[in-house]
Amino acid sequence: MSMKVPSWIEPAIWSLVIGAIGTWVTLSFGFGWMSAGAAAKMAVKKSQEAVVAYATPVCVARFKRLPNAVSDWATLKKTEEWDRGGILEKDGLVSGPNQKLDPDTADAVANNCASKIIALKTLGGAQLSMK
Predict the structure, then answer these.
(1) How far apart are CA 30 and CA 22, in angstroms?
(2) What are the extents of the domains in the chain?
(3) pLDDT tens digits, residue range 14-45?
């Protein structure tokens, strides 16, 4: 006894596959739907951007209050660009006391802060040389 498959099964399966793909495309591109993993990555990225946006001006303000800020600026200016953020992290300017940032966020804050500090034109009333 053999089982006979109805003739409408193959078109129904293809319709189901095409409908599923169409639904996925519509949800993804039309309505911004995404997987939980993609949403988690986006949330981490956005939160890091928010921390960097908040912490960078604080870091610059801490740098401006340093007793030797002008000579520290000159030292920072002479330092290789890739190492500037590390100097600020080592000096404790990136995060406040009792504040722990994950390494990626701390690096992002330090690098952004270093670029803002190097871009300063005056510091404590002193004109900074851009040479």
Answers:
(1) 11
(2) 37-127
(3) 999 999 999 988 888 888 888 899 899 999 99
H or E stretch covering 107: helix 103-118
Q: Which of 84, 93, 28 is nearest to 66 (CA)?
A: 93
Cβ-Cβ contacts under 8 Å for 42 (sequence gap 6 or more): 34
Bridge partners for 122 per DSSP: 127
**Does the pLDDT value for residue 131 go beyond 70?**
no
Where residue 93 falls (left for φ over 0; alpha for ψ -120 to 50; beta otherwise) is: alpha
Coil, helix or strand at residue 122: strand
Please give the model's pTM, rounded to 2 decimal places.
0.70
